[in-house]
């Protein structure tokens, strides 16, 4: 294979359109006779509905329809369970999935109760305000421990418990092994996450074409093929009658893959019923309630070590907040459970979690998808262990690394993709060496006492993680040479900014000898590509990328065969480049790909038996299991002990995601992930009161990092190709976001010298005010040096 | 009650009847079909809806269409002519200053005005000027670099 563009920092094909405001996003879809939807949402987190009066809304001029759960008839059904629990012995799982409109009991604030459809959005919202719902408010289940102990009632009364799931996974025998430990550390950790908050909210446009008998849905989804299949089944249509288009999407980060949100189910139904197209665009306030979150886990964890710092085992018991429903199964807590093990040899592991229903919005994966929580627990345990054992923080990590000759490495538990948690490949020591060098670890530790004496509260942090990426089941791709000489590529996954229009084009360009800009990539249109799973779990480049490569290779063969016939020569004598095939060493003997495409599709004569018309191929790729990426983040931070604000002096990421298709795009993915990690670590928190009300549902109150908060990052890479796919790729979409929480905790502790004063930062998110609360009592002591300055 | 407004958008004159409560962002996007201006919050924080009103960046979600009678507006569609990217747009492409591209129109309009005022900005100036625009994809680093690159290229040209 020529390596002309693969691995190069190629500029993106999609940018020109995006930069000129010409790209189509869902809210840009305009159709004749378009109607607009708005929802009446519950102001209560937990309430029984005694009655709904829609009469005033129906009378308002411009209102076309008002629907309650009762109006949906047989169409009213709880949504599908997207992922059943993995085959783990003894697993308890109580399936309760979201409903399109609340029938009897509201289970989280913002749950939709009534759908209003009107001539424009302004009227629809006016009419939503006309609806009167009679609620009987109930005490809300908010706190995790209270939810477990069922002190405040049940989210789902028929279950008679708030337990959504209970899973124990073990490796070795922790109880036995701990007896031989020189050091055992037990702590409680709280790790909370927020909302993914793409700058584009969700939206759906549905159009029923009665003449063609077809439904078209534009949807901000990460998984158009699944939406197509599900809608077809719900609406009694065949899949061929439904086209789902995920056009340009303004960021996804996980929640846009949650399937069968109420709005996704209701708009197509109403569009068919009313025989008019309908649009719904989520507003930002709705987004905080109507789009899924990722939130908190409470871990009681312990680690056992030998006196030289080797891990003997880890025991962890944790509670996980799954929100009002659990359509995404166990993905998030299983990821926490599995990813905790990190790049380390942990001979004995005993992990149990209980997922709990609460009267809060639904929890589904958000970039990292529970991995953060596990990494936080393990990295904090190692920090504390290093202190107890008087070891260096980097050293305790290094001696516990899985060695490079131990791969594939079997962790003996089950991962979220139902496959055993086996790391395919890895080499961690070089990552550590590069990270220590890039951050200037030794030098900083040498300088730190002088900085302290000068009143500068600077600290260093360093954390490791692995990430299971690129899981199955499969993706496909269709490559086709057009008569114009351009090459088209279609795949079933959706794209939300990851640069697929370019990275996939690079793969094709190299195989068929055209410019990257001459490959026209279509993603997320079910009429262009029928099969696929979706964009999640850092799998687009890995799974779809390899399908693209395979299809492009087949097309290359077809081009050569057709050209060999054209020139009546051997295929070996041909070379592909610049969108043409030439006979090597014979100047002037060149034919353009477009001409060959036409020759492969003759108007007369016959296509020979056993051959197919056109220069086209479709391929699929499904890895047997996920490819494990790994990395280290390190930073130097200065904390102002009086205001507890931070200045990040240096931030380093060293990452191994196997073979890299486009380093420009990869760097962007890491930058964006770190920014979200920074938000999670120090800015973002969904604050609920004890009635389950979200108190900060606006961008003015829920703070995401700005250009002043995200540090400049220095990136470096090592490359350990994955043996699980021909291109050797591992996913990179989530890596930036995963280890930032423990990094902040460690570096801030170090900067303020907190452990020496008996304070540990065992919770995330932190914030200036929370840090002040936790460390505030010490600020008196600690600021003396500042005052001297 | 409706109001008559006459205005110029990207050099083209328009006269329309608008409802008093119609947001400028909705007017541009849905009445004029200029969907390049994006809406991310409708409460003035994200900056995605930023347009240039008589050359000054404003949030179109915080204004009513009825307020702009007699004014001149530039949206992202007006930053490039005949499909040729402006130096700032070109720099965003070269420096990978966008991912999903949803925040981009508001950032381009804001930075166009910023560079006109501050032709030789420091990194700190750029970050300060950018801090009213939220981007959830890029971590800002490449946006900062793109603006820097554009400033260098623009001041290198006579
Ligand atoms: S949409 Fe106007 S500032 Fe967010
Ligand atoms: S590029 Fe996606 S929000 Fe900025």
What does this structure look like?
The complex is a heterodimer of chains A (789) and B (158). Chain A is α+β, with helices and mostly antiparallel strands and 789 residues long. Among the domains of chain A are: 199-290, Aldehyde oxidase/xanthine dehydrogenase, molybdopterin binding domain (Aldehyde Oxidoreductase, domain 4, 2-Layer Sandwich); 424-469 and 626-789, Aldehyde oxidase/xanthine dehydrogenase, molybdopterin binding domain (Aldehyde Oxidoreductase, domain 4), CATH 3.30.365; 472-621, 2-Layer Sandwich (Aldehyde Oxidoreductase, domain 4), CATH 3.30.365. Chain A is 28% helix and 25% strand. Chain A contains 20 helices and 30 strands. In chain A, strand 17 and strand 18 (420-423) form a beta hairpin. Chain A is globular and about 85 Å long. The termini of chain A are far apart. The model of chain A is unreliable at 779-789 (pLDDT under 50). By secondary structure, chain B is an alpha+beta fold. Chain B folds into two domains: 2-78, Beta-grasp domain (Ubiquitin-like (UB roll), Roll), CATH 3.10.20.30; 87-156, Orthogonal Bundle (DNA polymerase, domain 1), CATH 1.10.150.120. Chain B has five helices and five strands, in the order ββαβββαααα. In chain B, strand 3 and strand 4 form a beta hairpin. In chain B, helix 2 (87-94) packs across helix 5 and helix 4 packs across helix 5 (141-156). Chain B is globular and about 50 Å long. The model of chain B has no long low-confidence stretch (mean pLDDT 96). The interface between A and B is large, with 55 and 58 residues. The complex binds FE2/S2 (inorganic) cluster (FES) (2 copies). One FE2/S2 (inorganic) cluster (FES) sits between chains B (98-103, 135-138) and A (199, 251, 497).
């Amino acid at each position: 294979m020529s390596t002309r563009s693969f691995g190069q920092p190629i500029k993106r094909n999609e940018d020109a359109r995006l930069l000129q405001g010409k790209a189509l996003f869902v809210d840009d879809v305009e159709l004749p006779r378009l109607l607009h939807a708005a929802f009446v949402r519950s102001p209560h987190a937990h309430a029984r509905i005694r009655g709904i009066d829609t009469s005033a809304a129906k009378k308002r001029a411009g209102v076309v329809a008002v629907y309650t759960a009762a109006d949906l008839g047989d169409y009213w059904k709880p949504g599908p369970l997207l992922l059943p629990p993995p085959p783990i012995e003894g697993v308890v799982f109580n399936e309760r999935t979201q409903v399109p409109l609340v029938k009897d009991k509201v289970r989280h604030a913002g749950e939709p109760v009534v759908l209003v459809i009107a001539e424009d959005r302004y009227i629809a919202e006016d009419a939503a305000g006309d609806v009167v719902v009679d609620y009987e408010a109930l005490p809300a289940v908010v706190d995790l421990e209270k939810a477990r102990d069922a002190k405040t009632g049940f989210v789902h009364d028929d279950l008679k418990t708030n337990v959504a799931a209970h899973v124990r996974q073990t490796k070795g025998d922790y109880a036995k092994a701990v007896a031989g430990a020189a050091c055992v550390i037990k702590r409680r950790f709280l790790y909370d996450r927020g909302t993914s908050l793409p700058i584009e909210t969700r939206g759906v446009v549905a159009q029923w074409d009665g003449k063609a008998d077809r439904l078209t849905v534009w949807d901000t989804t990460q998984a158009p093929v699944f939406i197509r299949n599900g809608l077809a089944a719900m609406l009694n249509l065949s899949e061929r009658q439904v086209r789902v288009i995920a056009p340009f999407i303004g960021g996804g980060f996980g929640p846009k893959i949650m399937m069968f949100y109420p709005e996704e189910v209701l708009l197509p139904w109403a569009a068919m019923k009313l025989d008019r197209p309908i649009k719904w665009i989520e507003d930002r306030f709705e987004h905080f309630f109507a789009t899924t979150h990722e939130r908190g886990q409470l871990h009681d964890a312990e680690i056992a070590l030998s006196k030289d710092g080797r891990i003997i085992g880890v025991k962890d018991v944790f509670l996980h907040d799954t929100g009002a429903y659990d359509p995404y199964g166990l993905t998030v807590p299983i990821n926490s459970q599995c990813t905790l093990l990190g790049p380390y040899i942990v001979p004995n592991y005993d992990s149990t979690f209980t997922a709990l229903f609460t009267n809060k919005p639904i929890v589904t994966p958000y970039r990292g998808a529970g991995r953060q929580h596990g990494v936080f627990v393990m990295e904090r345990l190692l920090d504390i262990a290093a202190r107890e054992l008087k070891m260096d923080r980097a050293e305790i990590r290094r001696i516990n690394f899985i060695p490079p000759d131990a791969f594939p490495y079997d962790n003996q538990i089950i991962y979220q993709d139902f496959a055993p948690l086996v790391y395919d490949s890895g080499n961690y020591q070089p990552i550590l060496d590069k990270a220590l060098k890039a951050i200037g670890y030794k030098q900083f530790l040498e300088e730190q006492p002088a900085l302290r004496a000068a009143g500068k509260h600077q600290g260093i942090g360093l954390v490791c993680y692995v990430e299971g990426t690129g899981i199955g089941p499969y993706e496909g791709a269709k490559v086709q040479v057009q008569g114009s000489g351009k090459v088209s590529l279609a795949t079933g996954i959706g794209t939300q900014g990851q640069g697929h229009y370019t990275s996939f084009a690079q793969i094709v360009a190299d195989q068929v000898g055209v410019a990257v800009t001459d490959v026209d990539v279509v993603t997320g249109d079910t009429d262009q590509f029928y099969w696929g799973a979706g964009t999640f779990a850092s799998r687009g480049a890995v799974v779809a990328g390899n399908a693209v490569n395979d299809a492009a290779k087949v097309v290359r063969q077809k081009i050569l065969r057709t050209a060999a016939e054209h020139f009546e020569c051997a295929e070996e004598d041909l070379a592909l480049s610049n969108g043409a095939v030439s006979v090597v060493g014979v100047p002037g003997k060149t034919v353009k790909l477009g001409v060959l495409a036409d020759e492969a599709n003759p108007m007369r004569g016959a296509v020979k038996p056993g051959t197919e018309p056109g220069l086209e191929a479709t391929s699929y790729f499904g890895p047997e299991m996920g490819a494990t990426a790994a990395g280290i983040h390190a930073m130097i931070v200065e904390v102002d002990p009086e205001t507890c604000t931070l200045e990040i002096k240096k931030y380093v990421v060293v990452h191994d995601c196997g073979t890299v298709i486009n380093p420009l795009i990869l760097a962007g993915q890491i930058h964006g992930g770190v920014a979200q990690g920074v938000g999670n670590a120090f800015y973002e928190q969904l604050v609920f009161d004890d009635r389950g009300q979200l108190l900060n549902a606006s961008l003015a109150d829920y703070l995401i990092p700005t250009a002043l908060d995200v540090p400049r990052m220095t990136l470096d890479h090592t490359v350990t190709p994955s043996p699980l796919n021909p291109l050797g790729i591992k996913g990179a979409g989530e890596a930036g976001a995963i280890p930032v929480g423990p990094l902040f905790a460690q570096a801030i502790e170090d900067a303020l010298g907190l452990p020496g004063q008996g304070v540990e930062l065992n919770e995330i998110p932190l914030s200036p005010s929370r840090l002040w609360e936790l460390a505030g009592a010490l600020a008196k002591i600690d600021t003396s040096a500042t005052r001297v300055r | 009650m409706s109001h008559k407004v006459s205005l110029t958008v990207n050099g083209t004159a328009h006269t329309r009847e608008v409802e008093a409560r119609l947001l400028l962002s909705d007017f541009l996007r849905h009445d004029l079909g200029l969907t390049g201006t994006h809406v991310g919050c409708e409460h003035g924080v994200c900056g995605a809806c930023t347009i240039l009103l008589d050359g000054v960046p404003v949030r179109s979600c915080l204004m009513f269409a009825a307020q702009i009678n007699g004014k001149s507006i530039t949206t992202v569609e007006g930053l490039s002519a005949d499909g040729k990217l402006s130096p700032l747009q070109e720099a965003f492409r070269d420096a990978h200053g966008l991912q999903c591209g949803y925040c981009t129109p508001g950032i381009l309009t804001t930075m166009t005005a910023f560079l006109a005022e501050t032709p030789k900005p420091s990194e700190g100036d750029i970050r300060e000027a950018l801090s009213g625009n939220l981007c959830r994809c890029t971590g800002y680093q490449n946006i900062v670099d793109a603006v820097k690159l554009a400033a260098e290229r623009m001041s290198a040209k006579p």
